[in-house]
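Technical annex B. To support the medicinal chemistry partners, we prepared a structural model of the target in complex with magnesium ion, based solely on the information shown next.
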Amino acid sequence: MTGDQHDQLAVAGPDELPILHVDMDAFYVEVERKRDPALVGRPVIVGGSGRRGVVASASYEARAAGVHAAMPTARARRLCPAAVVVTSDFSGYAEASEAIAEVFESVTPIVEPIALDEAFLDVSGAHRLFGPSPEIAWHLRSAVRQATDLDCSVGVASNKTLAKLASVAAKPTVQSSGPEPGLGVRVVERAEQIAFLWAHRVEALWGVGPVTLRRLNDIDVVSVGDLAAVPIERLVAAVGTAHGTQLAALARGIDDRPVHRGGIPRSVSHEETFDTDVRDPDRLRGEIVRLADAVASRLRANGLVARTVAVKVKYPDFSLRTRAQTLAEPIQTPRLLASVAHELIARLDLSTGIRLLGIAVSNIAEASAPPVRSSAGVGVEALTAPETQLQLELGVGRHFSGESVSSRDTESGPTGDAELDRRLADALDAIRGRFGGAVISHGAAGLRDGAPGERRWGR
Ligand SMILES: [Mg+2]
């Protein structure tokens, strides 16, 4: 399950720094050194040792010679002939990773693992037991060392973007003379966060890969400060509306992505078993819209987007059929989701009626910055406007690329939803937040108060 309830309880006071990013230092290398102390102090490369091997991780000594992850091992050996190349089984890493996770969970249940050696923590509920966030960070560092004999770096800040940059700033550094110890903990106070953020190169930001970086450099954006200063029209022309808007927000230190307890779910789904087999196309449309709304609402509540949509039907003879499609752009709004689901279901034989309908999304990622919530007042206006009903009609899926995963630049345009759809969904979310999930529903689904599955659907 997702951490919905925890996400809602996790709202911190304005002066708190609720987010920690903890990242182990040279994790794989240090685990190997524990296994074989002869490696201590020597340059170490963990990775494939064969002719086609690739570096998975390098010790700070090897990094000083220019070795980095993903480099062919053969090249790494030439750069650093003294390096010991270690190819190991996975068990030591998994064991250390579990020990670290236990330490994190002793402080807060809201832990989002990012990798074996890295996690975000929301500590807004932990102050009574463990003190202010910086104290929690130092506590974690010593508790991790005690549990694993390994070091980590901790970033403390008001949001995920800043906490991640802060943990990097806390890391040991590589000088030509060799590794230098880092701060261990870096706290970014609110008063300094803009200066801290703007001093970074723009590729340090979440979602800026090589393609986006080139487009930003083309408009003379090199630092995050440049990014904050560039007019939004110019930014949008360079990287697209959705991505441009999100980058502009990140550059201002705005990032309200929650810490997802347990990590990002692999899939989100809702299904409904009907009292009597459903054959009527209008009824089916209503059910599709309702289930799509339930799934999209879960995604949106957690700041997530999805690229793969699947439908499932069960026939009166209990046989199952599924159909799935992966989209070129991730989505999170009910209208697009319902549209894709409707197309998928239309490919199935519905003449005998169906006893169960399900909609699932997978290929889930974080929206790089969730859309700013509209106020409930705006939401009420949007819902009472006559054109709202039109927006809720099922669209035609002309946005979609077909069965296969598109290989084009997936780092641009983090969402395929139209601006209007997102605002409408925001409005729905705002009203649900105020009145509870069962109040607002789309079109025909609203006529079915108290139907089986209604409570689940409410989110
Ligand atoms: Mg690490």
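Notes passed to the chemistry partners:
The chain is about 40% helix and 20% strand.
The CA atoms of residues 311 and 447 lie 23 Å apart.
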